[in-house]
Amino acid sequence: MTQLEDKLFALVRAAMTGQTFDAPLTDDDWRWLYRAAARQSMVGLCFTNRADMPKDVAMSWAAEAEAVRGLNTLLYQEAARLTRIFTEAGRRSAILKGQANARLYPDRFARQPGDIDIWVEGGKKSVVALIMELGLATELASTSVEGKPTASYHHVHLPPTKDHVIVEVHFRPSSGNFNPFTNRRLQQWLEQEILHTTTVEQGFNVPSVRFALMMQLAHVQRHFLGGGIGLRHICDYYMLLKNSTEEDRREVASHLASFGLRHGAAALMWVLGEVLHLDERLMLCQSDSYRGKWMLREIMAGGNFGKFASRQKHGVIRRVLEGRLRHLQLMRFDFGELFWLESRFWKTVVKTIPTRIRYRTLSLRDIRR
Question: What is 194-258 written as a DSSP string?
Answer without folding.
Answer: TT-EEE-TTSSEEE-HHHHHHHHHHHHHHHHHHT---HHHHHHHHHHHHT--HHHHHHHHTTTTT
